[in-house]
Amino acid sequence: MYSKLSDLLSVCVRCGSCLTSCPVYNVERDELISPRGKIAIIKGAIEGKIPDTEVERVISFCSLCGGCEYVCPNGIRTIDIVIEARKKWGVSKLKKLMVEGFTRGVFPAHLATALMAIIFPDKLPFKPAIRPFLSTTEEFRKGRGRGKVMLFVGCLTNRFFPSIAKAISDIVVEAGFDLYIPKSQICCGFPHLSIGDHDEFERIRKHNLKIINEISPDYVISPCPTGLNTLKRFYGLKNVMDLSVFVLENAKELDLKPQNIKTTWHDPCHLKKELHIWKEPRRVLSGLSQYVEMERADLCCGFGGSFSLSHPEISFALKREKKKYIKDSGAELLITECPGCIMFMGSFSPLKTLHLGEFLIRSLGNR
Ligand code: SF4
Ligand code: SF4
Questions:
Q1: Is residue 111 over pLDDT 70?
Q2: CA separation for the pair 309, 95 (Å, rounded)
Q3: Which residue segment(s) compose the domain that 311 sits in?
Q4: Residues pairing with 54 in the sheet
Q5: Could you tell me if 157 and 200 lie in one domain?
Q6: Which ligand sits closest to the CA of 76?
Q7: Is the CB of 65 under 6 A from ligand 2?
Q8: Which of 108, 137, 245, 314 has the most CB atoms in a 10 Å sphere around its CB?
Q9: Nearest C-alpha to atom 7 of ligand 2 is from which residue?
Q10: 137 and 199 both lie in a single domain
């Protein structure tokens, strides 16, 4: 699945092409925490030239957004390097507790809400005390036999945005596919991987893969690009499908009506920089609304999961910049595809923020 750390480090030629694609470097302007800086520090630490405290500090400055991988001419997999380094240099017990609490839903609603209020001091962009989507949904919905789709819900959508999962379910069934939503599915495990907890990630990966293999779907679709990318990159699945691609491929089966509204699009980091999907959502929105392109649409919103908690100053700087671009876009509605981005941008965006699935459901026969 991932190579040895020493192999991963060997091919960086320090060309610097990745520098300005790194949102963290762009805020801090510190070479040591740039993508190539991190690689050099990790290499130095392996050779015994850099103290553990310095490598631990440097590797914390990464939101695993994939911006550097997207532009690196040598195909350096910085995400693999950072998560391998985080494994080697220890899993923070506090972070492990936080990740477990959120992804397993073990925190009571009021505690989860209190923690969320630290991340979202402006306003909470969701109603906290809701029942998880997987506790209420049917496990199977019959379509017109055009194929089998499995919905991989993801922990944020399950806990905080059941309406997004419901919208995507309706679109898949409307397109004629039989839909499977196994209740035993759990978080994709990326939050665990991101803090270096590879053992827990492996347990999760095996659990979810068993479920997916039993269903053997034509496609796995998810409201969450990070989840989708994890299934593709770290589970090795070939049949993952993004919602915008699904809609374009099944446009004839879906009676989608245009909406008289000006929209703009925010590129979730993992959707564009890892899955390389950015043209497709724009095609969908251009066909169904008056689409306007926002400046720096692919600028990270500043969330990055636990990154916004560990480096709030960088998160705040990114959020302030993003807010300006959203405001200047002249749109009436902000659309994206990531529940994390929706949660975060929903707390500061001057525009109403919807998941593409929620936008599409409004176009489905103008419901
Ligand atoms: S773009 Fe790739 S090869 Fe160049 S410095 Fe960055 S990680 Fe190294
Ligand atoms: S993954 Fe993102 S935050 Fe991390 S080094 Fe690369 S560009 Fe920077």
A1: no
A2: 10
A3: 253-363
A4: none
A5: yes
A6: 1
A7: yes
A8: 314
A9: 22
A10: yes
| Pocket of ligand 2 contains residue 64 by CB under 6 Å | yes
Q: Do 228 and 270 lie in a common domain?
A: no
What CATH number is given to the structural domain containing 268? 3.40.50
Q: Does the Cβ of 78 fall within 6 Å of ligand 2?
A: yes
* Ligand 2 centroid to residue 17 C-alpha, Å: 12
Q: What is the pLDDT of residues 112-128, one digit of tens each?
A: 666 666 666 566 555 65
Q: What is the pLDDT of residues 143-192, one digit of tens each?
A: 999 999 999 999 989 988 999 999 999 999 999 999 999 999 999 999 99
Residue minimizing CA distance to atom 3 of ligand 1: 12
| Proximal ligand: closest to the CA of 28 | 2
> Is residue 35 in contact with ligand 2, taking CB distance under 6 Å?
yes
Residue 291 bridge partners (DSSP): 263
> Does residue 314 sit in helix, strand or coil?
helix
Q: Which ligand is nearest to the CA of 64?
A: 2
d(CA 223, CA 227) in angstroms, rounded, equals: 8
CATH code for the domain in which residue 42 is found: 1.10.1060.10
- Boundary-marking domain end, from 90, 125, 156: 90
- Residue 352 is inside which H or E element, if any? strand 352-355
CATH number at residue 167: 3.40.50.1860
Q: Give ligand 1 pocket residues (Cβ under 6 A).
A: 12-18, 35-36, 68, 72, 74, 76
- Structure confidence at residue 29 (pLDDT): 95
Give which of 174, 185, 192, 175 is closest to 151, Cα–Cα: 185
